[in-house]
């Protein structure tokens, strides 16, 4: 919560027991009052720094899974949250869970209390928890929400790993080429100038490239730092935010991974909302809130508008090129047969499995390819450097 600060307190009870904890409050007086609610006399109060990196999605999904387990065991929401707060390793999460428990004790619902903490709980959490409260299936919704978040996290990590590996290998190969061209090859060039024999063509080409790298080294350094300089500007640019996903979807290998990951996320959220009894249009609103990319949000928003105007779901999807023919066919079948939730689950599992398989295949294929490319680049440089030495004997004997 942006308006609140994290405070760590230490106090003593009426029985002389020493207690300590963390609390969120607007100022020191409010923190002192909050710490002394349970008959504790605060002795010290210090402000703690908070980190955005501690608001991890992993902690949110773990909280939902543990909350579902405790609810199924018969504990109340307030008791479950207080118990989980005592066991959490991060102070700001402990204070946040205690705040949720206090709001519940004052009559607020869990969904409304979570809405006060957007850093920890995305909009999807509020929507599904609210549906669970309305239908009496809060433990079911918590468990499904945790499972969905964990699956999406694993899929996202696998896709990033598959795309990151070739970039790292190519970057290392490029750095080796630049280093050898700028520092190693000039030394060999100085030696070869003393030879009274023409250099092989391959060596001449590599030497010319080395001279170009030496003269253009400042420009290469500027081009290398340019992406880091432009990144903050591009992240704030609405035009780039809409252009970037379209460029990625136009790439031959990357497009399948990104499309599959996003479609898996969309259908998983829609399946969860359908199983929770939420109307389809409201489920699309939840999907739109969970997407971070503005271009994907526009796609879902246009689909929602078409359905609101009277189009069938599959017809609205047919207007968007991002949805595959299989998506439209299964959604149409689900609408006709009344089993839309099952079809959405099947689509979510299908795209998730396909993306997992594509990521594994890409990693398996790229490993030998990248090794081969790197070997060719390094081998060409080494052969070009040492090839004139093989002709050194001819030059000496001829002299």
Automatic annotation (TrEMBL):
* Residues that span the membrane, as ranges: 167-192, 212-234, 369-389
Q: Its family?
A: Belongs to the GSP F family.
Q: Which Pfam families match?
A: T2SSF (PF00482)
Q: What is this protein called?
A: Protein transport protein HofC
UniProt cross-references to NCBIfam families, sorted A to Z: PRK10573.1
Q: Which membrane topology term applies here?
A: Multi-pass membrane protein
Ranges of residues in domain Type II secretion system protein GspF? 64-186, 268-388
Q: Where in the cell is it found?
A: Cell inner membrane
Alphabetically list the UniProt keywords: Cell inner membrane, Cell membrane, Membrane, Transmembrane, Transmembrane helix, Transport
Spell out the InterPro entries in the cross-references. Answer: GspF/PilC, T2SS_GspF/T4SS_PilC_CS, T2SS_GspF_dom, T2SS_GspF_sf
